[in-house]
Design a protein that fits this description.
With 495 residues, the protein is of the alpha+beta class. The protein has three domains: 5-51 and 187-239 and 472-494, D-Maltodextrin-Binding Protein, domain 2; 71-175, Dipeptide-binding Protein, Domain 1 (Dipeptide-binding Protein, domain 1); 261-466, Roll (Dipeptide-binding Protein, domain 3), CATH 3.10.105.10. It contains 14 helices and 21 strands. Strands 1, 10, 11, 12, 13, 14, 15, 16, 17, 18 and 19 form an eleven-stranded mixed beta sheet that branches. Strands 4-5-7-6 form a four-stranded antiparallel beta sheet, covered by helices on one side. A hairpin with a 2-residue loop joins strand 4 and strand 5. Helix 1 packs across helix 5 (226-235). The two termini are 41 Å apart. One of its GO terms (biological process) is peptide transport. Pfam families: SBP_bac_5 (PF00496). This is ABC transporter substrate-binding protein. It comes from Streptomyces cupreus.
Length: 495
């Protein structure tokens, strides 16, 4: 049973606040230039791989505006210039013009050779960065240009190069198989100090090629405990707090929190190859039985969005292009026993499972639940051991494009096909979406693929998640990014 957020004890609040005491002491003073305040940032997850950009730690470097990529993405997911100013495609090869006048934080100049060094290190890494999974990529310098060639023609190369895992760093960052970003980026802030998994510091880089940062620096504290992060915002010990738990949001001033739609959908995957849900009419019965609104209200306390499709409000173009989907007719469940699996790593999922159990039982199903840690249940889910599986799934992977997610989860040979869907008509539209050039045509092809998947009832999207970000009253210009690539930018400062 969930304890109401407002019953958090004074002792717990004090203990949580104590975790932050002293962490941001230096932030009270002005920066080295004597102007403005340093931004005090409380983050949820500590580094897992020494802040190597070849890991998910790359997103921290991006959110601190210290490491940059050749390309960035606009709100629609289309590629825009960053360290590359323009690019063109010729078959399997893309040519990128490298921006002039850029220096790394150690004073060395950005050139084609340094770009090739970083991209080659990523392509040769073991394991590869996730964005290059299944992609053979080679980079070569050609004067002031860089050519990137893939084994097969790939319209998503610019979007792939926007991934923080393909950040461009100075030569000093690369020592053997390790990559150390300390003082090696090109962004408006220079990473100057890392204290293991507890904290990090960044100073403004005054020779930045773009707009000079408004804040003199950033002081980062890693605070895995959600109550402690919320307490830091309440007490004024942090200026920006990421990932405030739903249970803590009610304790904060409503004006200090922003709910950011995430490209993440809570979905019930149904096993289409074996068991009761091999029958499309029973899959339809399950869909009709689910009341997603009550899950949003009861489990997520209203801080989520009821799903209309697999792609949610973090991709605003999806709703504009979506049309009605024709699905199979439902038949009444007659005591069929189904087993639903999910995991404990996301606190809400066991509660979602319990609510679904009640809803499906009211519709005539007999429902068993199996709940474990994700590491101990993923292989069984992929092997089809469950009749249904509840998953919180990112719908745009590192390229910012949903076609890869749709193919991975619903193609006959998809690597994450929990529904075990094998439908040639679905495969056809999935391949079309993946091969279509970026822009409006690709977005329409993606929505066509989404409709084909939804028509099978292999997956029942229930809700789209939000992340809650806390900004103190004096914070100006903090980013609220659904892709979690930006947080403190050159425009961010504290009054």
């Amino acid at each position: 049973m969930r304890v109401p957020a407002r019953l958090l004890s004074l002792t717990a609040v004090s203990a949580a606040s104590a975790l932050l005491t002293g962490c941001f002491a230096e932030s009270e003073s002005t920066g080295a230039s004597g102007e403005g305040k340093r931004v005090r940032l409380a983050m949820m997850q500590p580094p897992r791989s020494g802040l190597s950009p070849l890991s998910d730690d790359a997103f921290k470097l991006s959110r601190w505006s210290t490491a940059e990529t050749l390309v960035k993405l606009d709100a629609e997911g289309d590629a825009e210039p960053a360290l590359a100013t323009e690019w063109r495609q010729s078959g399997r090869t893309w040519t990128f013009e490298i921006r002039e006048g850029v220096t790394f934080h150690d004073g060395t100049e950005l050139d084609a050779e340094s770009v090739v060094r970083s991209l080659t290190a990523a392509a040769d890494a073991s394991p590869k960065p996730r964005i290059l999974d299944g992609v053979e990529l080679t980079a070569k310098a050609d004067g002031d240009r860089v050519t990137v060639t893939t084994a097969t023609e790939d319209p998503l190369v610019p979007q792939r190069l926007s991934s923080p895992q393909l950040s461009i760093l100075a030569a000093k960052a690369y020592r053997g198989k390790t990559v150390n970003p300390l003082g090696a980026g090109t962004g408006p802030f220079e990473l100057t100090k890392v204290n293991g998994t507890s904290s990090a510091s960044l100073d403004r880089y005054d020779d930045y090629w773009g707009e000079r940062a408004k804040a003199p620096g950033i002081d980062v504290k890693f605070v895995p405990d959600g109550a402690a992060r919320a307490a830091a915002l309440r007490s004024g010990e942090a200026d920006i707090v990421e990932a405030v738990p739903v249970s803590q949001a009610a304790l904060l001033d409503e004006e200090s929190i922003t709910e950011v739609p995430m490209p993440r959908t809570n979905t019930l995957y149904l096993n289409t190859s074996d068991g009761p849900f091999e029958d499309a009419s029973l899959r339809a019965a399950a869909r009709k039985a689910i009341d997603a609104g009550s899950i949003v209200k009861g489990v997520y306390e209203g801080r989520a969005d009821v799903a209309e499709g697999l792609l949610g409000p973090a991709l605003p173009w999806a709703a504009e292009l979506r049309t009605d989907v024709r699905r199979a007719a439902a038949k009444k469940a007659d005591g069929e026993t189904v087993t639903i699996g999910t995991f404990t790593d996301r606190a809400e999922l066991p509660e979602v499972a319990a609510t679904l159990q009640q809803q499906l039982q009211q519709a005539g199903f007999k429902v068993k639940l199996e709940i474990r840690e994700y590491a101990n249940i993923e292989s069984d889910a992929l092997a089809g051991e469950f009749d249904a599986f509840i998953l919180s799934r990112a719908t745009v992977l590192d390229s910012g494009d949903p076609a890869a997610y749709l193919y991975s989860d619903f193609a006959s040979d998809g690597s994450f096909n929990i529904s075990r869907l094998a439908d040639s008509s679905v495969d056809k539209v999935l391949k079309k979406a993946g091969a279509t050039a970026t822009g409006e045509a690709r977005r329409k092809a993606v929505i066509e693929a989404e409709a084909a998947v939804l028509a099978t009832d292999a997956a029942i999207p229930m809700l789209h998640e939000r992340v809650i970000q806390g900004d103190a009253e004096g914070v100006v210009g903090a980013a609220h990014d659904p892709r979690e690539r930006e947080l403190v930018t050159a425009d961010t400062y504290v009054k």
